[in-house]
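User: HEAT repeat domain-containing protein. Structure?
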Amino acid sequence: MYEKYVYYLSSGFSDDYWSDLGSSEAASYLESFALEDWEMLAQDVQTKEPAWLQRCAQTLSDVDAPQALGLLLELLTHSNNDVVVAAADSLNALASMGHIIPLTEELKRKLSETKLNTDAIGRLVIESLEKLTCYPI
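Assistant: Predicted structure:
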């Protein structure tokens, strides 16, 4: 299933298609992931292009799997601000569903740094995550 997910996220969808249908379809692949699929995704996540990682982050909040939370927290450390904002947005979605988001001091620093170097929407997304009840680990 991992290969299908990778292929699907690599497809050249328009932004409209992705937001209307594509992200839900991709999330359905994640729902079928076995433990091995999650392990492959975790191994490959830092080797993917930023646009692919943004799509990945957008789909991870649509599944109820502990691996999704871990990957989103890892994506918060990425060097690309758009990837960090996409991960923060998905973490906001998980938090709104009652998930506890464990932000370390290092992750909080990364969010503060990204907030200084992103656009207004990115700042709002990060500020929203910062305001949520987050528990340091």
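Residues 10 and 51 are 9 Å apart (CA to CA). Residues 2-131 form one domain.
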